[in-house]
Specification:
The structure is a homotetramer.
Chain A (H helix, E strand, L loop, with lengths): L10 H13 L2 H9 L10 E5 L4 H12 L3 E5 L8 H9 L3 E3 L6 H15 L5 E5 L3 H7 L9 E6 L2 H13 L5 E3 L5 H24 L7 E5 L3 H12 L3 E5 L3 H9 L3 E2 L2 H7 L2 E4 L9 H6 L5 E4 L9 H7 L2 E6 L2 E5 L5 E10 H4 L6 H21 L6 E3 L3 H14 L9 H8 L4
GO molecular function, one term (chains A, B, C, D): adenosylhomocysteinase activity
GO cellular component, one term (chains A, B, C, D): cytosol
GO biological process, one term (chains A, B, C, D): S-adenosylmethionine cycle
């Protein structure tokens, strides 16, 4: 099936970016050598829905190298780098991704990716916010029979899949790759943490030291953002709905306030909740002139941007990736990255090394599904812990570090209780 | 039943300490007002096995105040403050705890506490490292019928209880209080972290800045110790058996090495694994002259002190709580707190505010067991999450902070998947 | 005099950037209102040699607004943003700056700026690495009589001026603006720290957590870099020539090693010494494959890039701002920003708020020189401390904070000694 | 002259403490070997006024070992450890120090120490808060002729000596040992920082994580306290009179408020200003119930304890070293360490390694004065920088680290200005 991309001539720059990603992906490389080359992927379809940038591209390349029929769809036009899409198409992957498309196009791309992957046999899915899974259960139900299962990348996706499972409508097994410890402990915390703040600093050229930064949500993403913001000298306020997480934030040295109270004191606001309208009309009304807003969470509706656009007297770009909304009362609110996930729209996404871990997990998930899906029930499944540990072990090896094993005596000690 | 304590005349100092603990326990006080006063504890026995110091004592006092027949046993003589024991006895609690007892006495004390609590009816247990539970299942099986269940305080205890459950020998329901988020996220991390380093600094008068500190174990305890040690300027090396935790330590900025390699580079070693002989003959053999050793974990055998005592040419106290072992090759190893849990033997245990959380949880566990044990199966149970959240909410209130609630719209959003 | 710029049509983007800088420069705005508008600058020339980007531009604009005849020269083509240069020219400033010029052009630009500033009377200089001062003392000595004095922005410049003073060749008074506490404590530490790491992260997309980062130089710049790198999870090694600074780095929790030893262990190297060839042939020879190199110091020769270029078998760009040098033995070294000051060549320079402080100081220095130079001796002078304090006070006011004053009783206490 | 101490029988415990200090003083040991043994001290008097604890004692022992006639006076009874005093007396040092003495006794002790040191010839002074120097210029002026000079240990002392110099009454040369970089950068920052917080934590058993800690003064002491408090999870507010320091605190991520505003928000207050009545009636009036107060500064009047004692309705000890003051309105304020320097009165003073640096400096100062005082003018002098650097070099060597030297090429580069 022919790729849908913006401009094939951008491929050279895309290849260079993919090479950089490859050079910093020792774990995925080791996984390929030790696990993926066993023939599992020969002639198997793999449909991938993920932001189209260098690191995802390298995962697709690796899967293609071990024999898979790979198709890639962008879940949103805003997360497409056209040069990378072009390079990927040149390497024999079916690509459906164009940064100038509309959000509606994305559903169409995912449909095409599902069709491409199942065009000559069965397929497994590597999914983002359950997009491919949703399409397969709605507008492309006829393909369901060809899909062995899916592996889900995001927290938001897992939430949705649990909702599907609860409704009894999920028809194939899904591995919660997101819940792999090597994924959520690293990607959501260190990855989102570093890349969100980098995107903010490069977009605004503002200093973090001394700034009052409000982090909404203290899950792994919020924890990472708060910690690095503090590491760069910011004064951090956390907003939460879970009181135990709120208490952790307090013990970590942060102020913990209801969002409406925080709205009045913050200079920078970063949402990381996976929920909608965490910042909305009421909050905007209390913010000080010049407040900076950005979203680091998995859904694009955490900040109620529609309300902002509808209400502002004027909106213009004040720096690349930074829009200024002039409120009727004259205050100016500044939105970075359009309210979409800021480390992708105003940055290069997670650091390479983080994605190396994540995609090593994803590759092992796809491998596991390809071999075992037949014996797995429909529904959400965790990744077998030994695979999780293997990825961590490979990474520690790659950086010259290592862990111990329990001695037999210690194992017995842990198993006993009579002292 | 008459208390077994060292010296009743020490009571005044003990009362003063208990008052200090009470003054810093707003959460337990709020729990007492809102939950414990409902008559549940009237004439119910509560046997408590916990270190006997001011904060535990205040828990016992609160339970007695709401009508319980409370008995307290020290699980080890090394964790008894005699003044507190004396004060507690004066307040009508049956106390079995004497800092000058032998480890064998401790089993006897726990037997006495079980008998006292069941002397006039049924009882629930608040347990430490499953000590009371072990006694009840071995030398005091005849009391089993009077025990509604137990609440377990420690990670080590939960490990043991799982072993008992796996063997099918656990005969009453146990609430894993340790696994309450308000317990293990705070007590093990912030509590052990701060108090272990305080004990080390006050015992040794050494500077942490620049020191190479080796933390063995990167569970919640180890994480807290490593983080505060780094916060005080130490260069931290972590040893682990779980590669994913090892990788977290790496991403947190620490060196991660097998323990034998770390043995050669460390200046200070702190064990926090809950396992035995984490530091033993082989490690001692590689340590540099002057190395400092301490145990922060729940079991007293993490450092192989027996081997040290048997092997050293000379052992003498160089500062209060610090013993110097002169090895046959002339190197001197310095052990703080005798290898027992250092924040208790060479310090005052966890900070008061931490124990306030923990004991609020314990009080609610006891309350829950007292009311519901009849309908619970034998085996380990988690604390109902709403109680956990209530404790966190009460604490945030006490410090003037607060969290949000989900709006109806947000609740629906999280439950949906069709976008 | 006509401006020398690349493309006047770039002005709109430049104006937008300058507006952003203006919006975040409350201190310079306050200084303008309270001090600069007193007529001092009417018809006075001010020649400015500074990187041509939004924040510098705003300083030039402010000086022009209060009546000065302002000319701006870039000290190097690599630090010119052409859109800002165009916007500045449109606002009536004489600009000599073109990013596509050669390093030789820069001397010519500075000559032109000196001539423009003195074309209709006397002038003061705002200088960068003593560039204008050097030109005035060599190829444009005839202008010396028209120059009241200079204010110097950089540490490297102050070092050079001291050398000139020591040789007895400095012929006008210079204020060491760099040594103002509001300058060097903030600009060199927080400004260079944050912006250097931001530039590195956005250029390389690499993760700092766990990385072994070698910081060469532990002056204010190096301290800032080391601290923020650690705040982002890096493991930091410091190299120094001053043992007391080395010892500070040790107490701050960093490894301290001679540069040749550090060369073998580092993954990322950042120079911040103000000296030449801090990383050279010997160091390159010991580095691991894939090592990343960047310079954050004031001089472009800290990393011996000439040797790298002459020796590498191949050099190509692997990402924007990142060149890969393939060594004869196959190892690849990656240079960010060409060895020039990385936060300018691969980033947007210091955060706006930092430059607001710095340029408030510079504006006050120019004001001071304009009024007092006649009574000052040739040579280096410090800024009067009360001006330094005034800038800090204005900034604290702007962020809603404040300090105390000594009471009369306290003043007396500090002045007494008889107890 | 006979020593004035509390109880000679306490000596054994004192010897043990001194041995511990000796074992952790590699720098002073190296200085003794390389510098002090040259005969300079033979038959020279050295009068030392310093807190009498193990580390000071070891300095006195070292000086005695190289031939000096050493006398030691405590500048205050509150800083005397009687066991150390006894041990020192046994080792042939004249000791005037008794923890049960009155503040008035201290002046008498210093007089005795001056007399003992000059009893058989000339002497140099090692002074604390200029105590010996004050006595020598007032009640013991007749000894002035025998005193070659003094070395001053504290910031407060240097302030006083400057006052004396300004009045023209200082009659011998004084080396500002406090201003040695190896002294004030380490002792005041890391030493006071760690030991103050350790003393607070062990005295109160309170958790720092989440606490609002107000640090009054952001000099080196305050900086160290603030940084470690933040490292332990506290939320820090800083009060200052110098706006530039205030601005540093802001950029470091702390709130900066006038003390009266901070009084209303703090939970823990630590003074470190060297000034009087930094916390007084007005501040106490605004504090919340249960506020904790401690002084880490060099003078005992930073907290207006006299007012507290005069005003409180009740005062009693609630824990060792913690007094509770019940205010007329019922609020309770808790003072740790009596308002005297808390790391000495409620702790063991600075960490050993810090004092090793400080006393290596002091020993070199005494050595320098002994040899050069004749050619030095009366007044304050800095320590020659090469001695400062030598101490740092010896310390880095002792911990296995090291620094570089400038190459000849680099030295030339720094000296040039013509590019």
């Amino acid at each position: 099936m022919e790729s849908v991309i913006r401009d094939p001539s951008l491929a050279p720059e895309g290849h260079r970016k993919i090479e950089w990603a490859a050079a910093h992906s020792p774990v995925l490389a080791a996984v390929r050598e030790r696990y993926l080359k066993d023939g599992t992927f020969e002639d198997l379809g793999v449909a991938v829905a993920l932001p189209v940038e260098a690191k995802t591209a390298y995962l697709a390349v690796v899967l293609a190298e071990v024999g898979a029929r790979v198709s890639v769809a962008a879940p949103l036009p805003s997360v497409v780098q056209d040069d990378v899409a072009a390079a990927l198409a040149e390497r024999g992957v079916a690509v459906f991704a164009n940064s100038e498309g509309s959000p509606e196009d994305a559903d169409r791309w995912m449909e095409l990716a599902l069709e491409a992957a199942t065009s000559a046999g069965e397929a497994v899915l590597i999914d983002d916010r359950a997009g491919l899974t949703r399409i397969a259960h709605t507008t492309r139900r006829r393909l369901l029979a060809h899909l062995r299962g899916a592996s889900e990348e995001t927290t938001s996706g897992v939430v949705r899949l649990r909702a599907m499972e609860a409704e009894g409508v999920l028809e194939f097994p899904v591995l919660a790759a997101n819940d792999a410890r090597c994924k959520h402990l690293f990607d959501n915390r260190y990855g989102t943490g570093q890349s969100t703040l980098t995107a903010l600093m490069q977009s605004t050229n503002l200093m973090l030291g001394g700034k009052r930064v409000v982090v909404l949500g203290y899950g792994w993403c919020g924890k990472g953002i708060a910690r690095y913001a503090a590491g760069l000298g910011a004064r951090v306020t956390v907003c939460e709905v879970d009181p135990v997480r709120g208490l952790e934030a307090y013990a970590d040295g942060f102020d913990v306030l209801p969002a409406l109270e925080a709205a009045g004191v913050g200079e920078v606001f970063i949402t990381a909740t996976g929920n909608l309208h965490v910042l909305g009309e009421e909050h905007f009304g209390r913010m000080r002139d010049g407040a900076i807003l950005a979203n680091a969470g998995g859904v694009d509706v955490e900040i109620d941007v529609s309300w902002l656009r509808a209400t502002a007297e004027e909106v213009y770009e004040v720096r690349r990736h930074v829009e200024e909304f002039v409120m009727p009362d004259g205050r100016r609110l500044r939105l970075v990255g359009g309210g979409m996930v800021v480390n992708l729209t105003a940055g290069d996404g997670h650091p390479v090394e983080i994605m190396d871990l994540t995609f090593a997990i994803q590759a092992l998930c796809a491998h596991h599904l390809a071999n075992r899906a037949a014996s797995m029930e429909a529904g959400l499944h965790p990744l077998p812990p030994e695979l999780d540990e293997e990825v961590a072990r490979l990474k520690l090896e790659a950086v010259g570090m290592g862990v111990d094993s329990l001695t037999e005596e210690q194992r017995r000690f842990l198993a006993g209780w009579r002292e």
